[in-house]
Amino acid sequence: MQTILIVDDEFPVRRTLGMFLSLEGFEVLEAGSVSQAREMLVAKRVDVLITDMRLGDDTGTSLLAQLHEQGNDVASIVMTGYGSIESAVEAMRLGAYDYLTKPVNPDELVLRIRKLLDQRALHEEVLRLRDQLAGKSQLGHIVAHSPAMQNILEIVERIRSRDIPVLITGETGTGKEVLASAIYHTSSRAQKAYITVNCATLPEELLDSELFGHMKGAFTGAISSSKGLFQQANGGTLFLDEIGDISPRLQAKLLRVLQEGEIRPVGGQKAVKVDVRVIAATNRDLAAMVRSGEFREDLFFRLNVLMVHIPPLRERREDVPALVKHFVGRVAEAQQRHDVGLTREAMQKLVAYDWPGNIRQLQNVIECSFALHSGPVLGAAEVLITAIGAARSHEEDEQLLPLAEIAMRHIQRVLAAHGGNQVASAKVLGVSRSTLRRKLGETG
Ligand SMILES: Nc1ncnc2c1ncn2[C@@H]1O[C@H](COP(=O)(O)OP(=O)(O)OP(=O)(O)O)[C@@H](O)[C@H]1O
Ligand SMILES: [Mg+2]
Description:
This protein has helices spanning 11-23, 34-43, 60-69, 85-93, 106-140, 147-158, 176-186, 204-212, 229-232, 248-260, 286-291, 297-303, 319-335, 344-352, 358-372, 391-398, 403-417, 422-429, 433-439; strands at residues 3-7, 27-31, 48-52, 54-55, 58-59, 75-80, 98-101, 166-169, 194-198, 237-241, 262-263, 272-273, 277-282, 306-309, 341-342, 377-378. The chain is an alpha/beta fold. It has three domains: 3-124, Rossmann fold (3-Layer(aba) Sandwich), CATH 3.40.50.2300; 141-311, P-loop containing nucleotide triphosphate hydrolases (Rossmann fold, 3-Layer(aba) Sandwich); 314-439, Helicase, Ruva Protein, domain 3. 49% of the residues lie in helices and 14% in strands. Helix 5 packs antiparallel against helix 7, helix 10 (248-260) crosses helix 12 and helix 18 packs across helix 19. The longest helix is centred in the N-terminal third of the chain and has 35 residues, at 106-140. The protein starts with a strand and ends in a 5-residue tail after the last helix. The structure holds adenosine-5'-triphosphate and magnesium ion. Adenosine-5'-triphosphate (ATP) is lined by residues 142-144, 170, 172-178, 283, 326, 359-360, 363.
């Protein structure tokens, strides 16, 4: 049932309207003064506020102004005496939805109330849908055809409104960062801060003061205090990437934050309360690290309230064609040409490959192959799968190859490392760009 609060200092007026509205099926509250109205608004959820403008020595506008200031957006309708349109305008400026001149016709009032409630409901529905859509479109960036990936997206969808810590595991290049960002964007904290930190790239001391902040003079060079990432992420989400790489000392510190919800900056005495949702990711086997004593079990359980494991690409080959299409589409967009594509054989070659570098490697292969090939359509031979992290096997293979072939392979590796950028690659190779193009068999 919808609750209506009527504020009028004339008892007969509020009682007549009140009775009428009760008969229409509303729950009605009556107040004779601004202070009484304020008490009721605190004590009870009110859907519509109907207030007179002149209330003894107070005014309806001051009531609205107070509510406005408190961020209370209760829907309101003001009643004004004949000839005091200015105050009605003022009331509308303060967020009143509508106004009626006195004496108020009860039928007219009911009509306006219903219209207002309908509009409110519609507005809320729009907000809800927009919210849902924003979440959906975030998930829409993630290519997920395989049942395993579909299942992951369903889980993300299901935990949208829950602030639980999530631990994402998976081999390198499987899309852990992409997933973390999607979880953030679909969460109830989507409008709040999202801060990401890679725990593997910073030395321990630096990571410590980055995460927890430090006080002025905490160490040499700390010439001013600084807020750590936990504080910067307050109210929002912190993504701790490569969590498996943090030192035992920082593991202990992190555990304390997660347990107690407060941090102690380096060199600081006072604890600071923080409210941060943590998403962590690692390509290491944390459970095995717990067993071997490298990772604290208690921290593991804190982070691992929900574990999402992204399987390697070779275990979900159904995703390869869709991913290829996705990346080819990006090449088409970047090169402003719409005739790019692959032959069936080329696609088969990609699906059959094992992808030790997972999606990132697939993306590189597509981008480099198109960069090196001048035609719009790639055949199987033009799909250049440059192995990652396999330098040793290259050396072994290359011992028996002709010089030109070794040179060609080297050129392709350099190009791959530079995302197909010929200018950058030529610089590294110590040749001009036109020489590079000639070696690649291109003219001009
Ligand atoms: N499902 C997906 N759909 C589309 N693109 C994806 C998907 N998963 C990953 N990618 C792309 O693959 C690349 C690697 O993804 P990401 O950086 O998230 O991997 P990662 O698991 O964090 O890797 P690492 O362990 O090396 O840090 C990115 O360019 C990302 O945009
Ligand atoms: Mg990553």
